[in-house]
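Recall that a protein's primary structure is simply its ordered list of amino acids. Everything else, from secondary elements to tertiary packing, is in principle encoded there. The following example makes that idea concrete.
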Amino acid sequence: MKYAVIVPVFNRPDEVRELRYDKGVGYFWIDTYEGLNVVLLGRSDVEGKSRINQTDPTGKAFVREMIENGQKSGGGYTDLMFAKPNETTPLPKRNYTASFAPYRWVIGTGIWIDYIDSKVAIMQEEADANFHSNLMMIGLVLVVLVIFLIFASTIISAIKDHSEKYGTEIPTIFIEPGRSIVGTAGVTLYTAGSSKQVPNGRLYQALDGGMSDNARPSLYGAKYTVEIANNPKGEAEKKVTLAGKHCESGDILAKDVMLPEIEEGDTICFYDTGAYGYSMSGNYNRLLKPAAVLVNNGKSDIIISRQSYEQLCESDVIPDRLN
């Protein structure tokens, strides 16, 4: 009877042997209630044989214990010493097993303690880095707040003196920091398209955006720091002018900037576009507005969806007489 229950797996053993998780680190094995191994990484010295009496270097009959723990409600854990795949040195390991009663199987998986320790160390490093980063941010905010208070106090004092001197009413004062706060918080990413070298002239690189998503360079010559996001450390050896796709001579996003060789498909990053990028964008030449993505600590969320052609044309009306 115990041989009959393993027939379904031995017909397709590779499907179980090749099951992996955690980027290939984790694997599964199967033993019957009687201790006959069904699958264990394709090891011919184990599969199809009983290992009920197998012990680890400390003398623990771990297979018997795993089978017993696996038959408990919710399964169970077994601690043992066991070598990693393709290695011979036994290391501390914790296995989890659970029962599959219809086949009288105990299915197991496990993890080595040093792997857990390494994961914990990485998480601790990330936590420490986040703590220091947050601490620096709090310090920076406090410094900015102090400077702002000094700045505001100086302005208010001067206005009060002026009002008293000329007998005028003290006005209400509003300060809008605007770009100084949000400008550096945003970047714009473009995809590089075709390029054109004018004989004895400029090298133009076309981008998939332009004056519709950033009007500042065309309106009043705003300048930006630019880099190739997928090649940030490349040698800046080419003088290039980055042009938009709006069929306008003034649709220039950056003129004569030094960058590495740009290839079609590269991601071109414009820094400090958080203040007057999307807020000044439009549908010039009926181009769609891009999406906006919030990025923080390795996580990203879409906060403005990419505009669709249906949204672009939703206000268009065709008179009945033309239908």
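The chain has three domains: 4-116, 122-179, 185-312. Residues 10 and 93 are 27 Å apart (CA to CA).
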